[in-house]
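Hey Z.,

So I finally got round to the calcium ion thing we talked about over coffee. Here's the setup:
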Amino acid sequence: MLNRADIFEAIEAHLPRSEATGGHLAVMMLRVEGLREVSLRFGYAIGEAAHAHARERIRGALRPIDRVLSAGDDSFVVVLPGLHSHNHVLLAAMRLLQAFERPLPDLPYPFQGRPCMGVALSPDHGDTPDLLCRQAEMALAAAQARGESCVLHEPREAHDEIVYEELREAIEANRLSTYFQPVWDLQSGGIAGVESLARWATPRQGLVPPASFVGFAEKSDLIQALTRWSIGTTLRHAAMLRGAPGLTFAINFSPRVFARPGLVEQLMDLLEIWGLPPSVVVAEITETALVNDLDAIAQAMRRMRDRGARIAIDDFGTGYASIAYLRRFPASELKIDRSLVCDVAHDPRTAKLVQSIIQMAHHMDMATVAEGVEDRATQDLLMSMGCDYAQGYHLGRPEPADDFVARHAEGPKEI
Ligand code: C2E
Ligand code: CA
Ligand code: CA
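And the result:
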């Protein structure tokens, strides 16, 4: 179905040649997720009918001047000439998403399909059909990797290119390090578990904290490899700690990967390989993730919880999620953010707020973890407020996981 010559010709015909013709030309690669599976399940004839209906939907959402060309079983190239600004591309993308909000007609089962789009613009990103198509295709791959519906091509800076390659290589060669920070049970005074934190040692910069590279990985497709690495290395160390039963291992999940199909299975497979029960894992996901993509995240959480893993809402108190909002998420723990915890001992209003967060979490059958406990006074206050767990420099800094394992393989210690 792919006819590259036709596609190139359609793009070529509309390329902005001069200031006079003006505006931008957008080349959009659009994949309708699920469309290919229609052929596989119901036969090619029905698959082709679905493809034609999808094309009709796309056509109907656009201006007469726009072109829609088939580019595969489930893909289309859309050429949008004469756009006055980048925002017009987003507008077109929004209309395309809306067009697929109803199921396609005349199919043996209701099929809706979800468009996923990658876009490159001329003249900003290039001025040949070949380059624009490749960039749009890469943007589409990025959109799919991130679970977003539309991604605009992002020209990579030379510096980013280097970091990307270095980080990719470091993940692949298993050269990131795993640090463990203890999580204390405030009421019993023992170590309840650890949070697994990544570090990247580079010859140029020394130990790079994750705040500098996790965000970078999230912007590219590296976040999936990082997540895989993170689960693998944490469970490997957890397996070495079988002599200290009852410890839990908290793993940070980027919101970008949390709702991806296959994540729960990947985690369960690795648990099985290391012979560990799912109950040793606490999957941490930040509060801000709950504001976007609500349903997908809630569903992934439920599946994870049904299989026996625990879920913690990280950085609670920094985003916009209210306690009432948490009703929708089957979390087992709430991690109160450092920015609140660091003030509890000197600011009575913050203390009241934290106290009520703890109470409400308990009413909703969630345990509370205070992050960033840096002194004894804060620890004592949180304990008196009924906070269940705590983590922070006062109680234990992150340390190489191997060191933690060496000390605890014989059994957990007390405060
Ligand atoms: P986070 O999940 O909120 O992790 C807690 C951060 O607080 C860690 O920073 C920890 O070192 C720091 N911390 C702990 N106690 C104290 C304290 O008492 N005072 C202060 N000032 N800081 C404290 P870190 O290790 O730099 O990690 C930063 C963030 O990077 C983490 O925030 C987490 O969101 C992310 N991250 C770390 N490792 C991974 C990973 O393997 N995968 C993913 N996706 N994200 C990760
Ligand atoms: Ca965390
Ligand atoms: Ca946190």
